[in-house]
Amino acid sequence: MPMRSPILSVLIVILTSPFAWSQSGQGPHGSTYTITALGSGVHTLTWTIKPGTYAIGNSTFIVGDQDVIVVDTGNSRAAGEAILEGLRQVTDKRVSIAINTHWHGDHIFGNQVFRTAFPAVRFVGHPETRQGVITGELGYRDANRPKTQARIAELKAKTTLTEDETRELDRSVMQVEAWEGDYVLPDLLVDEHLTLMQGTRRIEVVHLGEANTKGDLVIHLPAERVVISGDMALTPVPFAFFSSPRKWIDTLGRLSAMNPTTIVQGHGRVQTDPRFIADLQAMLRSIVEQVDAGLKEGLDLAALKSRVKLVPPAGSVYEKANAAALDQLFRIPAIESVVKETVPPVAAQGSVAGTWNLKADAAEGQTSSGGTWSRSAVTGTLVIEQQDTALKGTWTGAKGEDWPFTGRVQGDRFEFTTEAREVPVVVDGQQTRIAFRWTFRGDIAGSTLRGTMTFDRAGENSERHQPFTATRR
Q: 413 is in which domain, residue-wise?
């Protein structure tokens, strides 16, 4: 979940667990963690959050003979350091891979600690996770850090503070601390499926579909019947900010089909009864159906928030959840997300036309066939003309080659593809020429374009999505 939501942290309750506790420790701002041994070298670190402080996502350690795979790294450098300290209570083996289940800051901002401690570590994430960090977290930080720092200075300059101002100051200081350091992005991108072998242990990293975010990854340990679900499947209060409720329902069905006996959530205690997944599906389905009915009647968003009700399934863990938390963290944002899924945004006419400087960092990933791909860093220029929703223009790479393209824009989304062009390549030691093309897809964000680009054989459906950012000249 996005760390900046002010109500989230105070409403997360860590309940008792059926597993034996093994270690515990201190985290930032009075929060504490407990490490639970799930067996077979799998340990989960769960947090007890001090009221008034920000939420921190759970972490999992998968310990092999030679190395450790860590899932999620906390909400800040301080949290990452605490998680690393907790890992050292379990083992002194190196971390080879850190997996980010999704883009929310309370699960990824500790990456920097593991990069420093283990320079060779790889960070695994979905392309939408990498993009979500750039647009959803880094963009928010860059826009709001100066204002937050100014507000801190203003509050500290006061002789006396009200209770509300004291709370605001404390939370603002914590937010600025969470923004400290370097944000390390996933550099091993998984579109659909990645299999990791840790000795004889098989670890499946799978994108089951859109859910809590567009890029949720599930980590499945088939032999142990363990799944690590991130915030996709959560109790006692699920989070629905920026979610895809319609697709989430089906994605949960695919999660349930894995038939796990142990589910490590993104927050809260480990679950051993998977029935809560069906209960979460039922709540999402109810909201979607009610919103659809209201939209057919012509209700606006405010009326839908008043009309749509949420009644947790009888006997479910959600029936015992804090009603205010369930309303503010799940029902209302789920309604907003369903409406956003249903009602397309109005096209921003003329917002893409112009000249753009493009930059894409080097990237690599896994294909659905089990192979790997890599792309070097790319720079170049986009010159775009727009007529209504139609796009045409030229992509010029760093070497000066021009690639004419056509495409379209719909709302704040764009897509365009260049003409195919023969490029000299070496195949089986022989020089030849093969037709390639560029495809660009992404979002319009004011004076910035953000998305993914591919460079592949003409006629193929690409799996090689390289994130890029383009700024208007």
A: 354-472
Q: Which of 226, 259, 280 is the last residue of a domain?
A: 280
Strand order of the β-sheet with 218-221 is 193-198, 201-206, 218-221, 226-230, 262-265
Task: Give the three-state DSSP class for 284.
Answer: helix
What is the three-class DSSP state of 206? Answer: strand
Q: Helix, strand or coil for residue 213?
A: coil
Tell me the one-letter amino acid at 99: I
Residue linked to tokens 């979460």: 280
Percent of the chain with pLDDT over 90: 51
Strand partners of residue 230: 265
Q: What is the pLDDT of residues 250-295, one digit of tens each?
A: 999 999 999 999 999 999 999 999 999 999 999 999 999 999 999 9
Task: Please give the structure tokens belonging to residue 33.
Answer: 């963690």
Mean pLDDT of the region 427-438: 74
pTM of the model: 0.69
Can you tell me the distance from the alpha carbon of 183 to that of 192, in angstroms, rounded to the nearest whole number? Answer: 24
The strand ranges marked E within 376-465 are 378-387, 390-397, 402-410, 413-418, 421-427, 430-445, 448-457
Whole-angstrom distance, CA of residue 442 vs CA of residue 444: 7
Distance CA 134, CA 451 (A): 10
Amino acid at 39: G
Alpha carbon 45 to its chain centroid, in Å, reads 19
The type of residue at 381 is T
Helix (H) or strand (E) holding 60: strand 59-63
pLDDT in tens, 310-320: 999 999 999 99
Residue pair 67/93 in contact by the 8 Å Cβ criterion: yes
Please name which of 177, 185, 172, 186 lies closest in space to residue 77, comparing C-alpha atoms: 177
Nearest to 150 by CA among 167, 164, 163, 169: 169
Is residue 43 within 8 Å of residue 61, measured between CB atoms?
yes
Split into its structural domains, the chain has a count of 3
pLDDT, position 363: 78
Query: CB of 374 within 8 A of CB of 364?
Result: yes
372-375, strands of its sheet edge to edge: 21-26, 32-39, 42-48, 59-63, 67-71, 94-99, 122-125, 188-190, 363-366, 372-375
Residue where one domain finishes, among candidates 303, 321, 342: 342
Q: Are residues 407 and 325 in the same domain?
A: no
C-alpha dist (Å) from residue 167 to 155, 170, 174:
11, 5, 11
